[in-house]
């Protein structure tokens, strides 16, 4: 999808439309990507629930639990960043709300919001950051934490 997606506020939506209607099998690739992401979130929730019920977080597996929680947070982050990339009304407002949540934190809230958005308001810098997170930073972190998680099992 990165061959066709253009991460700009003026072209993102049109590029997603192109992927869905013009690119060879683009509709299939995007649909599989979207449904796989939803299933991943469901599987993570079920896995965390199972580990909690079986006590898999107790000694000597505390660090395995911590890496699992980090992987769950990374999965949620993939969801939020991916949800925003079409830059439609739903994606835009989701980003506006999610990046506005830290505003409630005293002292560091406003700087944290600016760090997430890239400026005081949601715009091109926000989309660029979310695209970079979704395609580079989060996959790299996920690979590192999955390796750690699997080596401890």
Automatic annotation (TrEMBL):
> What keywords are assigned to this protein?
Membrane, Transmembrane, Transmembrane helix
Any keyword Transmembrane?
A: yes
Q: Name one GO molecular function term.
A: oxidoreductase activity
Q: Which domain of life is it from?
A: Eukaryota
**Ranges for domain Cytochrome b/b6 N-terminal region profile:** 1-153
A cellular component annotation (GO) from this entry: membrane
* Tagged with keyword Transmembrane: yes
Which residues are listed as membrane-spanning?
35-53, 65-85, 131-152
Cited PROSITE patterns: CYTB_NTER
Output the GO biological process annotations, alphabetical, semicolon-separated: respiratory electron transport chain
A Pfam family reported for this protein in Swiss-Prot or TrEMBL? Cytochrome_B
Matches recorded under PANTHER family: CYTOCHROME B
Task: Report what the protein is called.
Answer: Cytochrome b/b6 N-terminal region profile domain-containing protein
**Species per Swiss-Prot/TrEMBL record:** Dipteronia dyeriana
């Amino acid at each position: 999808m990165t061959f066709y997606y253009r991460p700009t506020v003026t072209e993102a939506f049109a590029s997603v439309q192109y992927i869905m209607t013009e690119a060879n099998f683009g509709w299939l690739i995007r649909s599989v990507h979207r449904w796989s992401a939803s299933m991943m979130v469901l599987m993570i929730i079920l896995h965390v629930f199972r580990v909690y019920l079986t006590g898999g977080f107790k000694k000597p597996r505390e660090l395995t639990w911590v890496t699992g929680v980090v992987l769950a947070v990374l999965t949620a982050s993939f969801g939020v960043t991916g949800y925003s990339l079409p830059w439609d009304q739903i994606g835009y407002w989701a980003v506006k709300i999610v990046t506005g949540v830290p505003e409630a934190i005293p002292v560091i809230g406003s700087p944290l919001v600016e760090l997430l958005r890239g400026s005081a308001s949601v715009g091109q810098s926000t989309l660029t950051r979310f695209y970079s997170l979704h395609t580079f930073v989060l996959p790299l972190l996920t690979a590192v934490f999955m390796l750690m998680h699997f080596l401890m099992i």
